[in-house]
Amino acid sequence: MRAARYHEYGSVETLVVEQAPDPRPGPGEIRIRVAAAGVNPVDWKVRSGAVREVLPVELPAIPGRDAVGVVDGTGEGVRGVGIGDRVFGLGGVTGATAELAVLSAWAQAPATWTDEEAAAAGLASVTALSGLRALGPLRGRTLLIEGAAGGVGSAAVEFAVARGAVVIGTASERNHEFLASLGAVPTTYGAGLTERVAALAPDGVDLALDTAASGSLAGLVAIVGDPARVSTVADHANAQRLGVHTANAENDSALLAEAAELGRLGRYTPRVERAYPLERIAHAHAYAERGHTRGKIVVRV
Ligand SMILES: NC(=O)c1ccc[n+]([C@@H]2O[C@H](COP(=O)([O-])OP(=O)(O)OC[C@H]3O[C@@H](n4cnc5c(N)ncnc54)[C@H](OP(=O)(O)O)[C@@H]3O)[C@@H](O)[C@H]2O)c1
Questions:
Q1: Where do the structural domains in the chain lie, given as residue ranges?
Q2: What would the pLDDT profile of 186-218 be if each residue is shown by its tens digit?
Q3: Average pLDDT rounded to a whole number, residues 4-24
Q4: What value, to the nearest 5°, has the Cα angle with vertex 161 and ends 188 and 115?
Q5: Which atom in ligand 1 lies closest to the alpha carbon of residue 235?
Q6: Ligand 1: residue whose CA is nearest its atom 2
Q7: Nearest CA to ligand 1 atom 35
Q8: From the centroid of its chain, how far is CA 33?
Q9: pTM attached to this predicted model
Q10: Is 3.40.50.720 the CATH classification of the domain at 125-246?
Q11: CA nearest 16: which of 25, 26, 8?
């Protein structure tokens, strides 16, 4: 099969598109013929070698954590999905940006989503749902989302709005219209956030979700008034110090099905800023590494 790969840790220059061995699904796994794969921060963090102590990968490695495609093989014990089904989901830390990928968590992709949208849904949706779950019931609550314009943040806005929260989301000004289109009240992150939020929510903010890891976690705790009502998916070091909930992506098909159901209801549409062809994988990573993606970057395979 054709695949994006890197043979050594390093910059985007290490990325090539070449032939690689076809993967095989193990027990409980499926193999899909990939239509499109997501690009997530973990892809370039792993590729750069920056997280090799905690997330080592076997080289050469195929980047990519999530994808959409059509099932072309199932491993032992797999039930409820058949050859030809169009599914989106999660594989390992690597492996998705290729013609064939193995997934260990998946859900049927809503017919209303394009392949690019479905490719953007996997990691972002399970991460956003886990981060929100840590905060408890959302109906009638005012929720502040730090980093609301990114892949995880934009998914979290739509999920929280669907569950009846009033959402204030932070982003740079260029993304304020985007946040409003998702159903959030936009404001700018950084110095003065406390005052801006107080003006937007005179009765106070009940909950906060951090997806930005920008060093603002202590500030979010001060705005909400209680670390137990704050969660982060991105700043685990400060969370531990402050007593804030942490949440991580899980390869959980039930969470993917929950996201897909909201997709079918028209309450969640993964937002794709840019889609690159497989051959331009290095450009896709370079764009994502800037840290200012609006929604998601995906790669068409
Ligand atoms: N724990 C897990 O399992 C897990 C899973 C997935 C992701 N993550 C982590 O969660 C974080 C978010 O992931 P992602 O996929 O959403 O990333 P992303 O799409 O690359 O996020 C980009 C967004 O971050 C915003 N941003 C940049 N600087 C900011 C700041 N100082 N304050 C607030 N927002 C800022 C940008 O908005 P502007 O362009 O408007 O500046 C942009 O929309 C990453 O650190 C990622 O590694 C963790």
A1: 2-121+270-300, 125-246
A2: 999 999 999 999 999 999 999 999 999 999 999
A3: 98
A4: 90
A5: 45
A6: 248
A7: 147
A8: 21
A9: 0.98
A10: yes
A11: 8
